[in-house]
Structure formats: C-alpha cells, structure tokens
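Risk register update: the risk of archive-format incompatibility is retired. Evidence:
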Amino acid sequence: TARAGDAVLMHACCHNPSGADYSLEQGAAIAAVVARKGITPLIDLAYQGLGLGLEEDAAGIRLVLAAAEDGLLAYSCDKNFGLYRDRVGALYTLTRDAATL
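Archived output:
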C-alpha cells in the first residue's frame, strides 16, 4: 500500500505489453487517490498520440499530475519519431514548491 511521499509507477497510455488505456473517469479516480494519499506519480509516457490521439492520450495523466504535490514524467519520443534505438526523450519534474527541487 502506497503511503504519503511514496512514488508509484504508472503507464500513461497504450500500456506495454497489454495495450490497455484508462478511461477519463478512471484517470479522475486515480487522481483522487493521488491527492488523498499524497503519493508521487512516476508516469511513463512512451506512446502519446499512438492510441486515441495526442490530447486524448494525455488527458487522464493531466488530471493525475494536477492532483499531485510532486510528480515525475518520463517522456519517450523514440516510438513517435521512429528512432527505436536512439532513446529520445526527457524526464520532467513537477512540483508545487520550487524549494523542494
């Protein structure tokens, strides 16, 4: 069970290997748990735009990040760019308190 301050790994969309996606309602429910428990989401977003669309694939994750005090987003672009061996991406750190960085 995750406690306040724990980081929890989540997939954003097009879960590998299942291909499953959370609905917007499920994303809102996850966001509520993140806010209530004070956990830090660590989100793996590797397939944005390859599921339902750029905006749709990120909608639930935006809710989760908006609910969190802090969050980490690992954003991979190698699938989107067709550069599978080059590992193109970024790690974003989000916080409500810049002093915590």
